[in-house]
Write a structure and sequence with these properties.
The protein is 8% helix and 39% strand. With 191 residues, the protein is mainly beta. The protein has one domain: Jelly Rolls (Sandwich). Bound molecules: D-sorbitol-6-phosphate and zinc ion (ZN).
Length: 191
């Protein structure tokens, strides 16, 4: 991998970076067990393994001192009354942070620490979010029709721990009910 400086562009609209070394697509089947309404989840999955979100990664060596970046695109939609969202993760090296810059759409970043502290930040174009070390993070798209698009940057040595969230879930969920968009406690969260 070259150590020359490089640049790329993120076109508005579209948001697909002019340089992308990897394109990840995550579907409904990748979030097994995460949505609250498992009946709605299974019904939806039996019809189609819907694309929930995509990530374009700018690859760099996964070592301390490097920065990894890319674009995350969460599509609009719901499973039951819960909005489409990313799997979410802690960083394997817990003491690593991340920055997000929202480019398009509306949504939330749901965050929590291993000790059980929670924090939910609304995302809309122009919002910059600093996710400190130790905070698990999950993006949720609440737009009706638009994608939630964010640009992210994090340390090269962070790594991803998906297992903890797959097993326990997040403490908070973003749903829509009669009152509108609401943040609720996850009744299925496992301590
Ligand atoms: C990586 C960073 C993002 C997410 C992306 C998809 O540390 O937080 O690139 O990977 O938003 O989410 P997830 O939970 O499937 O990795
Ligand atoms: Zn991350």
């Amino acid at each position: 991998m070259s150590d020359q400086p490089f640049s790329f562009t993120i076109p508005f609209p579209g948001f697909k970076p002019s340089r992308a070394d990897n394109h990840i697509e995550r579907h409904l089947s990748d979030l097994r067990g995460q949505f609250l309404d498992q009946h709605a989840y299974k019904t939806m999955l039996s019809e189609e393994d819907t694309l929930l979100y995509e990530v374009y990664e700018i690859k760099r060596p996964e070592i301390e001192g490097e920065l990894l970046s890319g674009i995350s695109i969460v599509h609009p939609g719901k499973v039951g009354n819960e909005f489409f969202m990313t799997k979410g993760h802690f960083h394997t090296i817990l003491e690593t942070a991340e920055m997000y810059y929202c480019l398009n759409g509306e949504g939330f970043m749901v965050m929590e620490t291993p000790e059980g502290e929670t924090f939910i930040e609304a995302l809309s174009p122009g919002k910059v979010l600093y996710v400190p070390p130790r905070w698990a993070h999950r993006s949720v798209c609440t737009s009706r029709q638009e994608d939630l698009v964010t640009f992210f940057i994090y340390p090269g040595n962070s790594g991803h721990n998906y297992g903890t969230i797959e097993e326990k879930g997040f403490r908070k969920l973003v749903v829509e009910n009669e009152k509108g968009i609401e943040i609720i406690d996850n009744p299925k969260f496992k301590e």
